[in-house]
Amino acid sequence: MKEIDFENIRPYNEEDAQQAIQRVIKQHEFHSILSFVFGEDKVEDMTARAAGSKTITEFQRNFMRPLVWEIVKNTAENLSVSGFNTLRPEIPHILIGNHRDITLDSSILATLLQDYNILMAITWGDNLMVSPFVTDLGKINRTITVFRGGSKREILLNSKRLSTYIRKLITEENLSVWIAQRKGRSKNGDDRTDPGVLKMLSLSGKGHLSEKIKSLNIRPVCVSYEWEPCDIQKVKELYVSSKKNYVKSKDEDLQSILGGVVGQKGRVHYAIGKTMNEEMESLSPDMRNNERLQRLAGMIDVEIFKNYRLWTNNFLAWDRLNHSNRFSAQYGSDTEQVFDKHIAKMLKKLESLHGNEEEIIRLFLSLYAQPLQNKLSHDLPVSTPM
Predict the structure, then answer these.
(1) What average pLDDT does range 43-48 have in this prediction?
(2) CB atoms near residue 264 (< 10 Å)
(3) Is this prediction's pTM over 0.90?
């Protein structure tokens, strides 16, 4: 494919970014975000940091990095990592991640990777380009636009284009790429990889399926939030969907973006898993390609389940959901009090649904119990919460 084919999906180049930065700093959304995150007294300094950035990497280091860390400081109790020391700047990866928050999953990861001299592009659905400001800010930060709609032919052409562009970044530009393990966020806490994502990645490249996949150096990355910043919205969507067709409101994606930024997260952990090349090699060459992709998706799932950091509320939710005290040693009355306050807050916010409280609470418990259940179902070690 010629480079022109990537025009609608590529991030901004350096020239584009310079123009976009000047547009961004003039938008009222920009000043509102800075005022909210840093306070009015730091708006001028942060604006100067953004305006003075001469390259995309400078913009990320001078402006995005302090912005992301300030958000983390204001909304998270602690941020820990594991597996990052196994990464090498000279070996780019497809970082396929569990997807819990629209923007923060990848934004925090990109910021963490700066400490390891690793640059990363981010795939982002076209539905998230909710305004010129968000589009500009995303494309300055190396977002790749994923077009999901259209006819079967358009979907196939868009998938081939996306696959080819991602491969180009990996193999020619030494740029890692984050991609969600499936379309949309996990709303029920069950992190499952869609084989269709892997099939899209296999639409480009040469050789057998295993060779095309291995050349992308797929590594699962898992984020574990103690408190999901949009958990109440997720429960609402699941509950309404169980009764009728759920239709998003006009600004719902924007509200989810903002909710992720301002929502309290408690403790947060990021874990980089192992490269999946050995797993791909272990599959029988006699398998059909679709079966191979399904098996690989399952192996990615297990790596994410294994690396998920459990918190006290995961154990409590599992016990309540299963009417059990199996894991009662893992939490105390303080955990129960915080948990019950969160449930009461959720029920208050969702009272306009006039729904069945028992069902709503069950969905909430399932959201937090599922990561533990996934470990149990796959006979994976269940560690004591940190």
Answers:
(1) 96
(2) 14
(3) yes
Query: What is the distance between the alpha carbons of residues 6 and 144, in angstroms, rounded to a whole number?
Result: 10
Residue 386 has which token pair? 């940190």
> Is residue 108 domain-resident?
yes
Q: Do residue 277 and residue 170 come from a single domain?
A: yes
Structural contact between residues 232 and 347, judged by C-beta atoms closer than 8 angstroms: no
**250 confidence band (pLDDT: 50, 70, 90):** low
Whether the per-residue pLDDT at 1 is higher than 60: the answer is no
* CA pair distance 383, 361, nearest whole angstrom: 26
Q: What local confidence, expressed as pLDDT, does residue 245 receive?
A: 77
Identify the CATH number of the domain in which residue 179 sits.
3.40.1130.10
Q: How many domains does the structure of the chain reveal?
A: 2
Q: Do 25 and 150 fall within a single domain?
A: yes
Instruction: Say if residue 295 is exposed, middle or buried (CB neighbours under 10 Å; 0-12, 13-18, 19+).
Output: middle
Compute CA 90 distance to the chain's CA centroid, rounded to the nearest angstrom. Answer: 24
**Which range marks the domain in which residue 325 is found?**
313-377
Q: Give the tokens for residue 140.
A: 């300055």
Residue 239 lies in a domain: yes
Residue type, 48: A
Half-sphere exposure of 154 (CA within 13 A, CB side): 6
Question: Is pLDDT of 314 > 60?
Answer: yes
Kindly tell me if the per-residue pLDDT of 4 is higher than 60: no
Residue 386 falls inside a structural domain: no
**Helical segments of 249-321, H only:** 252-262, 277-282, 289-307, 312-321
pLDDT of residue 165: 96
Q: Which whole-number Å values give the CA distances from 378 to 134, 221, 304, 374, in the listed order?
A: 40, 18, 12, 6
**The pLDDT of residue 229:** 85
320 and 285 belong to one structural domain: no
The answer to whether residues 187 and 234 touch, using CB atoms and an 8 Å cutoff, is yes
Q: What's the whole-number average pLDDT of the chain?
A: 93
Q: Which amino acid is at 137?
A: L
